Each structure stands twice: as structure tokens, then as C-alpha cells.
UniProtKB/TrEMBL annotation:
PROSITE patterns named in the record: PROKAR_LIPOPROTEIN
Keyword list, A-Z: Oxidoreductase
PANTHER family: AFLATOXIN B1 ALDEHYDE REDUCTASE (PTHR43625), ALDO-KETO REDUCTASE YAKC [NADP(+)] (PTHR43625:SF40)
Protein name: Predicted oxidoreductase
Classification lineage: Bacteria, Pseudomonadati, Pseudomonadota, Gammaproteobacteria, Lysobacterales
Length: 329
């Protein structure tokens, strides 16, 4: 496995990680046995970055990851997130809590569910508009001082917030959506990451699976698949975005790779300081994703991809309005 780095002074990390969210929620039925096998297979293949969050499930994905890594803790760079508070009885209800008291409470809960003494990379999942970022990161820094957390991260924050947070304690990673169809970090955010030595951890690098080319109609989503509620997968947006994916497919076929592998290779080609974390709960897709690490894209390949899927060509916002409002820009 090729390696990259988390932060300026952080640990070595596999060039791609494994996003574990969909193993417990959002993308159809759970398959816990296959999910655990997939996590262990990822470790066998040299992936060391596992990404979860307390809110996934809600509150069950961390326990799944914890079971999967029993006896193999030293092989894992374990990343989790806090900030969303959900009601298990009504998971659609959610608030953001970035208060120092919740920082401490959430960390203890994650440590317990994961079955570990220390979290390697601890992210604030979304900023709490009611709490200055300095207060939240200050409490996160206290966790580092206490030995409960090793490195700090933020998720979906803008350049100004990242700078303010970094002034309180070094931020090692910024986790934001980044792919051919979500290029929001380009410009000020990515420039600031590079100025501060912050690694961009790219979630949904396959456009929530759409860039794989295997989703051909809205009916391909299970009834409980949350993509049914996302604007990019609805109505005319679906058809327009599918045409973009088909254009990428043509480039991939000319290259002799799958559309998903091409999309991952494109993210990897954007810089050694970017680490994509494609999610899957099946070993066969994991192996396909890992193969993308070996794909070399030359200038002609990159130009062909940009022509097939120009920046900002995607139709629809990436979240419904309520979730879009939680993004810091």
C-alpha cells in the first residue's frame, strides 16, 4: 500500500482509507458479518485509516468497528467524529453540540463503544454556530493533553474557521466531501490546508456511489436509502448527472479501468496531501478501490476527465436545505 501523511507532523497513512458509515446506516440494509470481514480485509491489504462517527447508526457503527479491530489495534489509525446529537427513537432529529461539556462526554462515549483507550484522529463533525470554534477546539485540545486523543480534525469548515481553529491547536486533517462532482474545497479551503499543513480527507470520493456507474435509475436505491432524499438523485437532476457519469465511463473504458477506479485516481492525483476514504461494506468493492492507488493519470488523462465532467457541472445541491445550512463556508 502506498502511504501518505496526516498533517504536517502526524502519522503515515494509507493512500486511501475506509469509510465505515454505510455499514450501519444510510445505504440500505446492514450486513454486519460482511462489514466486519471487509474491515479486516482492509487491514490485510494495508489500509490503516478507518473512519467512523458516533452519530452513524446512530451510535452503533463505532461498536461495529471496535469489534472488527479487536486484537489488531496497532494496525489502525482510528478516526471518529462528534458533534451531531441524534435521538435513536427518531434518528431524523439531530442537533449540533460543540460545547466543551459535550466534547468531553462524546469522547468518553466513543472510547467506550470503540473499546479503545485512545482515539487517533478526533474530528468535530460540524461546527456549532452557538459556540465559538476556539472553545470547541480548546476542549478537544484538553483531550490531547489527557492522552485520550492523538490528533485533531474538523469536518466541512471554511478557510477562516480552519485558521481560527488551528491558532488554538494544530489541526491535522480536514474531512470534507471532495470528488469529481463535489469540488467545493478547491480554492480558499484547499489553499489554507496547504498553508497550514492540514491533510484533506476526502469523503464520498465516489459521489455516494454514483460515480461507479452502477446506479442507473432512482429505483436502484432501497426504500430506506437516504440518497432518495438528496437533490442530486431526484428528477431531472438524476438524468443530467447520469449523463456526466456516462461521459466519465467512456474515459475509464479508454484507460482500461472502471469508472469508480478512475474517479478515485482523479482524487488521488489532486495532491499527495489528499486522502480519499471511499466507503463500502463489501470486500469485492474494497479490492477494486484499492487498485485505484496504482493508476497513473497523465496530463492527457486529466484533461479528458475535466472535459467529460467539468467543475460545477453537477446538477443539484449535495444535501437538502437543512443539511446544507450546517456547512461552514
Amino acid at each position: 500500500m502506498k502511504m501518505r501523511k496526516i498533517g504536517r507532523d502526524g502519522p503515515a497513512v494509507s493512500a486511501i482509507g475506509l469509510g465505515c458509515m454505510g455499514m450501519s446506516e444510510f445505504y440500505g440494509p446492514r450486513e454486519d458479518a460482511e462489514s466486519i470481514a471487509t474491515i479486516r480485509h482492509a487491514l490485510d491489504r494495508g489500509i490503516n485509516l478507518l473512519d467512523t462517527a458516533d452519530m452513524y447508526g446512530p451510535y452503533i457503527n463505532e461498536a461495529l468497528v471496535g469489534r472488527a479491530i479487536q486484537g489488531r489495534r496497532d494496525e489502525v489509525l482510528l478516526a471518529t467524529k462528534f458533534g451531531f446529537v441524534r435521538d435513536p427513537a427518531d434518528p431524523d432529529k439531530r442537533v449540533i453540540d460543540g460545547s466543551p461539556a459535550h466534547v468531553r462526554e462524546a469522547c468518553e462515549g466513543s472510547l467506550r463503544r470503540l473499546g479503545v483507550d485512545t482515539i487517533d484522529l478526533y474530528y468535530l463533525h460540524r461546527i456549532d454556530a452557538r459556540v465559538p470554534i476556539e472553545d470547541t477546539v480548546g476542549a478537544m485540545a484538553d483531550l490531547v493533553a489527557a492522552g485520550k486523543v492523538r490528533w485533531l480534525g474538523l469536518s466541512e469548515v471554511g478557510a477562516a474557521t480552519l485558521q481560527r481553529a488551528h491558532a488554538v491547536h494544530p489541526i491535522s486533517a480536514l474531512q470534507s466531501e471532495y470528488s469529481l462532482w463535489t469540488r467545493d474545497p478547491e480554492g480558499a479551503v484547499l489553499d489554507t490546508c496547504r498553508e497550514l499543513g492540514v491533510t484533506l480527507v476526502a469523503y464520498s470520493p465516489l459521489g455516494r456511489g454514483f460515480l461507479s456507474g452502477e446506479i442507473r435509475s432512482f429505483e436502484d436505491f432501497a426504500e430506506d436509502d437516504y440518497r432518495r432524499r438528496q437533490p442530486r438523485f431526484q428528477g431531472e437532476n438524476f438524468a443530467r448527472n447520469l449523463a456526466l457519469v456516462d461521459a466519465v465511463r467512456a474515459v475509464a473504458e479508454a484507460k482500461g479501468v472502471t469508472p469508480a477506479q478512475l474517479a478515485l485516481a482523479w482524487v488521488l492525483a489532486q495532491g499527495e496531501d489528499i486522502v480519499p476514504i471511499p466507503g463500502t461494506k463489501r470486500r469485492r468493492y474494497l479490492d477494486q478501490n484499492i487498485s485505484a492507488v496504482e493508476i497513473v493519470l497523465n496530463a492527457a488523462d486529466l484533461a479528458a476527465i475535466d472535459a467529460a465532467f467539468p467543475a460545477a457541472a453537477v446538477a443539484g445541491t449535495r444535501y437538502p436545505a437543512g443539511m446544507m445550512a450546517l456547512l461552514d463556508r
